[in-house]
Design brief:
The chain has about 280 residues and is of the alpha/beta class. The protein has helices at about 20-30, 60-75, 95-100, 115-125, 130-145, 170-185, 205-215, 235-245, 265-275; strands spanning about 5, 35-40, 80-85, 105-110, 150, 185-190, 220, 250-255, 255-260. The chain has a single domain (about 5-275), classed as TIM Barrel.
Length: about 280
């Protein structure tokens, strides 16, 4: 039995830090009863930034072929879609604008990765709190470019200097960033992989998630799988956290268009099917 739910964030070996071919991810999705999955491997960057954790531009065709092979193999069982996780930082916009036209992507995740060496060198000036403020400003900048469908793991910066993370102290700044993001109509991600990071909570945590709900920002759930076994991991907990924050529906994207399903429907399907996420 399929549940009307997509896992919208996963990777391939082309990113140099994931294992398992797309068919293996699709197999796990089929076993867990997911309607579909979207591959969002890390985008190539023109300046060679963080080349050891992303595909090269010369591998983009190979990426499409890998995902297409899984889509063909699992046709009728799991809807396998092509997406991309594209890094945002000031100045990268022209490159991404062109890159996003080079393949028939169903979904584009916009990410700010504050732990990447080049980002730290450019924006960390010795004060972790100020670094956090810069990061949230960049999240809002990313949303305002119009290049992305969703902003991924939107409090990832908390894992850079975890001893200095206190969201209550910078809540006004976070809220100003969310105000800007909400005006764009973009979605934001609830990323379940945060449970396995230094601060073991989803990205974003409950406080920011509630603020997102107050601004009617749509939410997409993603596992950020780098191994096939993590497909769909902790989705039931994510649904419960969304409901506690006041959300009644979740979103996913097909052909760059947002679709929704109610949380009540998803939980009812899970209960009736006996599936464990």
């Amino acid at each position: 039995m399929k549940i009307p739910l997509y896992d919208t964030h996963m990777h391939t070996p082309l990113c140099r830090h994931a294992t398992g071919m797309p068919e293996e991810y699709a197999r796990v999705a089929a076993e867990k009863g997911f309607a579909g999955i979207t591959f969002t491997c890390h985008c190539p960057l023109i300046d060679g930034r963080s080349r050891d954790v992303r595909m090269d531009i010369s591998e983009l065709d190979r990426y499409q072929q890998m995902v297409a092979a899984a889509r063909s193999s699992y046709e009728g069982r799991v809807d396998v879609l092509l997406g991309l996780e594209s890094d945002y930082y000031p100045g990268v916009e022209p490159w991404l604008e062109d890159l996003h036209t080079r393949a028939p992507f169903h979904y584009i995740l916009g990410s700010v990765h504050p732990h990447i060496e080049e980002y730290i060198q450019a924006y960390f000036k010795g004060d972790p709190r100020e670094f956090q403020l810069v990061y949230f400003g960049h999240l809002a900048d990313a949303a305002e470019t119009g290049l992305f469908d969703c902003i991924s793991h939107p409090d990832l910066v908390k894992n850079c200097y975890p001893q200095c993370w206190n969201p209550d102290q910078i809540l006004d700044h976070i809220c100003r960033a969310l105000d800007r993001i909400a005006k764009t109509g973009i979605a934001m991600e609830l990323n379940t992989s945060g449970l396995n990071k230094v601060i073991p909570e989803m990205n974003p945590g409950p406080l920011m998630l509630r603020q997102m709900r107050q601004r009617d920002i749509p939410v997409v759930i993603g596992s950020d799988s780098h191994v096939p076994e993590r497909v769909g991991a902790d989705f039931r907990l994510a649904l419960d956290q969304l409901r506690q924050a006041g959300y009644s529906e979740v979103s996913y994207f097909i052909e760059r268009k947002r679709r929704t399903v109610t949380i009540a429907e998803l939980i009812a399907e899970l209960v009736s099917s006996g599936l464990d996420l």
